[in-house]
């Protein structure tokens, strides 16, 4: 089996919303040596001469093989173990595809750092990476925002207490608490809310920090990553337009959340987007990810690239 793979850049949207560059990036990622070897290890090959939309559809159908969630939440997924040689190949290929070793920003200045929402432990890891990047490493940024939702966090009260945090009944509260700790925030200087959303702002610190709980754009369903991007752009009007953004998340979620951001904020608002993620393998807050969990997020990335390509095609 191949020992090493070249790192594959994620699709990018140049400032102003260049759609051609997005499609080129999707094609390069899907047709990379790393993806080709990963699919081949599971007995599948994409037709090289087929249109990009067809290849994405074929890859998405095959990725059902890696759907360990079956409609459930990520922490409820039931996975499988792989033989050592296959496990090692999966790890090398997915690292090259952007699902690991992606915690260092490429630039020294951004307009906004967006810390994406999650559970309590995940949020502490993401907030720590954001604070380290901005406060310790000296990356310049005009503002920081934590993006969450009103999704209830079930069964995390004991964890919250053990970590010395205030109660976090919702994802948005976990975002607020983690940023409060890692950025040394006091109480919000202003709060506003509406039907299924709220915004808490800290304008007495530099850079200023906002925390948002965004509403869902899909009636009857909880807000997802793309919804929080929409919420940030609409609840803080003008922030996204033409901005240079650094997104902070978990390493194995980087490709799919990056593609969602390119689709919503890049194409929609002309923003330039870069995404980094803390390393699950070495985090003090979360357990290392199982290999099947990483494969699940390759599937998420393929599906997000389908949506992204549909938006530019």
User: How far apart lie the N and C ends?
Assistant: 35 Å
Low-confidence stretches: none
The helix/strand class is alpha/beta
Fraction of residues in β-strands: 15-25%
User: Biggest sheet, strands in spatial order?
Assistant: 3-4-5-2-1-6-7
Number of beta strands = 7
Radius of gyration: 19 Å
Sheet having the most strands = 7 strands, mixed
**Secondary structure tally, helices:** 10
Into which percent range does the helicity of residues fall? 40-55%
Average pLDDT works out at: 94
Shape: globular
Order of H and E elements = HHHHEHEHHEEEHEHEH
The gist of it:
The chain has helices at 19-30, 33-41, 52-62, 84-99, 120-136, 157-162, 171-183, 225-235, 254-269, 291-312, and strands at 109-116, 140-149, 190-194, 197-202, 209-214, 244-250, 272-278.
Description of the structure:
This protein has 313 residues and is an alpha/beta fold. The chain has a domain at 109-289 and 308-312. Helix content is 42%, strand content 16%. The chain is built from 10 helices and 7 strands. The protein has helices spanning 19-30, 33-41, 52-62, 84-99, 120-136, 157-162, 171-183, 225-235, 254-269, 291-312, and strands at residues 109-116, 140-149, 190-194, 197-202, 209-214, 244-250, 272-278. A 7-stranded mixed β-sheet has the order 3-4-5-2-1-6-7, sandwiched between helices. Helix 9 (254-269) links the parallel strand 6 and strand 7 (272-278). Helix 4 (84-99) runs parallel beside helix 10 and helix 8 packs parallel to helix 9. The radius of gyration is 19 Å and the shape is globular. It starts with 18 loop residues before the first helix and ends with a helix. The model has no long low-confidence stretch (mean pLDDT 94).
């Amino acid at each position: 089996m191949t020992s090493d793979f070249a790192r594959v850049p994620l699709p990018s949207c140049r400032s102003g919303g260049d759609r051609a560059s997005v499609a080129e990036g999707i094609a390069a990622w899907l047709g990379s040596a790393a993806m080709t070897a990963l699919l081949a290890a599971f007995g599948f090959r994409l037709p090289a001469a087929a249109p990009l939309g067809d290849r994405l559809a074929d890859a998405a159908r095959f990725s059902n093989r890696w759907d360990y969630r079956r409609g459930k939440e990520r922490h409820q997924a039931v996975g499988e173990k792989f033989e050592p040689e296959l496990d090692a190949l999966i790890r090398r290929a997915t690292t090259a595809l952007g699902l690991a070793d992606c915690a260092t920003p490429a630039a020294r200045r951004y307009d906004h750092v967006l810390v994406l929402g999650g559970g309590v432990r995940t949020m502490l890891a993401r907030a720590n990476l954001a604070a380290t990047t901005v406060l310790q490493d000296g990356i310049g940024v005009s503002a920081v925002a934590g993006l969450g939702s009103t999704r209830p966090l079930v069964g995390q009260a004991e964890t919250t207490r053990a970590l010395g945090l205030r109660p976090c009944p919702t994802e948005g509260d976990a975002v607020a608490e983690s940023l409060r700790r890692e950025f040394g925030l006091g109480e919000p200087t202003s709060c506003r809310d509406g039907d299924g959303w709220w915004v808490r702002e800290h304008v007495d610190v530099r850079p200023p920090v906002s925390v948002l709980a965004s509403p869902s754009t899909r009636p009857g369903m909880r807000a997802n990553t793309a919804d929080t991007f929409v919420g940030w752009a609409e609840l803080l009007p003008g922030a996204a337009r033409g901005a240079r953004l650094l997104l902070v998340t978990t390493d194995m979620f980087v490709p799919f959340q990056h593609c969602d951001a390119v689709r919503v904020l890049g194409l929609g608002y002309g923003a330039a987007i870069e995404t980094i993620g803390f390393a699950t393998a070495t985090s003090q807050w979360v357990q290392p990810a199982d290999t099947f969990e990483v494969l699940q997020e390759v599937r998420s990335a393929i599906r997000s690239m389908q949506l992204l390509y549909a938006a530019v095609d």
